[in-house]
């Protein structure tokens, strides 16, 4: 059961996040300290300076040789489960949609591990919790956000090429050669303009190169591998230069989120029905898939609890930035619901954790009885 001590730890860990969030919201909505343009400048400062250095600090200080690979395996299994279910839904259901499958994958699987996860897990499970959410964040930044970017770029490229094909097809129809079949001509145009795999990979690579958080993850894990293999520490002058900016990472990220919330017309921008669906995907489907993956690889104890709770953290900031850039249901993102999503994550992750752990224990107990 959830004790008052657990609730107190959550409150202590998350109250500073809410303070920064409210200050960001009020600075635009109530006190008019920042204009919309100045708010955009704050967001760019967070995106290009404090958040990448914050990410680099945690990544560089981890030890990849002591990672919990069972946890990483469970995380991979949970995401594969979500992908298979969503693909089946998009293919076989009359209400299925590949566009909504992409959005649902983002909601179910991609979490705000560092900004919210680190203080929460540190309060609840100490250094073990911090280490596991940092591992999750690194794998997410290098593997799963790249996968999401590839799918989004594939979708947008397909749309762009469909538009180009439509224009080219109309031109062909008006200028078709005498004696040549029109359908054959249109087929030639489609074949000649169809995007190649390498074109998509090149486009995705260019996007990643421009993303400072990609640099932070890759450079951080590269440094961590070398430093832990060769047993040397970062020079204090370099570490101090990073820390002076990275220490502001959590606060400025939440402040920036508050500014973004204040610029929305409604507190719940996507409406109650989409909010309810998003909550189910974020706080039930994601942790449930993670529980299945964790059972499959044999996680137990605190590692199992941490795996399930971190799957119920708020959605990744980067995934929302991608959704907004590619015009794919950015309005359905739970960060539009600001206070509701952040508060919901803190309350629900403990409830989900308790419920799923109880079900797992019951299942294992019944399996033990059946074996006897």
From TrEMBL:
Record-level Gene Ontology MF annotations: auxin efflux transmembrane transporter activity
UniProt keyword Transmembrane present: yes
UniProt keyword Membrane, yes or no: yes
Entry-linked InterPro entries: Auxin_eff_plant (IPR014024), Auxin_Efflux_Carrier (IPR051107), Mem_transp_PIN-like (IPR004776)
GO cellular component: endoplasmic reticulum; plasma membrane
Keywords annotated in UniProt: Auxin signaling pathway, Membrane, Transmembrane, Transmembrane helix, Transport
A Pfam family the protein falls into: Mem_trans
TM segment ranges: 7-28, 69-90, 102-121, 133-152, 242-263, 275-299
Compartments it resides in: Membrane
Swiss-Prot/TrEMBL GO biological process terms: auxin polar transport; auxin-activated signaling pathway
UniProt membrane topology term: Multi-pass membrane protein
Domain of life of the organism encoding this protein: Eukaryota
Protein family according to the UniProt entry: Belongs to the auxin efflux carrier (TC 2.A.69.1) family.
Job of this protein: May act as a component of the auxin efflux carrier.
Protein name according to UniProt: Auxin efflux carrier component
């Amino acid at each position: 059961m959830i004790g008052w001590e657990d609730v107190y730890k959550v409150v202590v860990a998350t109250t500073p996040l809410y303070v920064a969030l409210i200050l960001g919201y009020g600075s635009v909505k109530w006190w008019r300290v920042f204009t919309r343009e100045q708010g955009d400048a704050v967001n760019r400062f967070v995106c290009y300076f404090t958040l990448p250095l914050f990410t680099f600090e945690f990544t560089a200080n981890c030890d990849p040789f002591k990672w919990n690979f069972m946890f990483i395996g469970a995380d991979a299994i949970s995401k594969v489960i979500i992908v298979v279910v969503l693909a089946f839904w998009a293919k076989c259901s009359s209400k299925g949609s590949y566009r909504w499958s992409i959005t649902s994958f983002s909601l179910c699987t991609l979490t705000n591990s560092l900004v919210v996860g680190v203080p929460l897990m540190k309060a609840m499970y100490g250094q073990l919790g911090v280490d596991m959410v940092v591992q999750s964040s690194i794998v997410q930044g290098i593997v799963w956000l790249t996968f999401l970017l590839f799918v989004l770029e594939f979708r947008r490229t397909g749309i762009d090429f469909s538009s180009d094909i439509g224009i080219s097809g109309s031109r062909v129809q008006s200028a078709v050669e005498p004696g040549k079949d029109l359908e054959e001509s249109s087929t030639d145009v489609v074949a000649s303009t169809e995007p190649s795999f390498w074109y998509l990979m090149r486009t995705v690579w260019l996007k990643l190169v421009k993303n400072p958080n990609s640099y932070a993850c890759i450079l951080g894990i590269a440094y961590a591998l070398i430093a832990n293999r060769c047993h040397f520490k970062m020079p204090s002058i370099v570490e101090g230069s990073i820390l002076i900016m990275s220490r502001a990472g959590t606060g400025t990220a939440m402040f920036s989120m508050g500014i973004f919330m204040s610029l929305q017309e409604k507190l719940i921008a996507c409406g109650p029905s989409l909010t309810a669906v998003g909550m189910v995907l974020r706080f039930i489907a994601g942790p449930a898939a993670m529980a299945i993956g964790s059972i499959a690889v044999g996680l137990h104890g605190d590692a199992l609890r941490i795996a399930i709770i971190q799957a119920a953290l708020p959605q990744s900031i980067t995934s929302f930035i991608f959704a907004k850039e590619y015009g794919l249901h950015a309005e359905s993102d739970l960060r539009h619901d600001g206070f509701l999503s952040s508060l919901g994550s803190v309350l629900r992750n403990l409830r989900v954790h308790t419920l799923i752990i109880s079900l797992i224990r019951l299942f294992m107990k019944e399996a033990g009885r059946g074996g006897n």
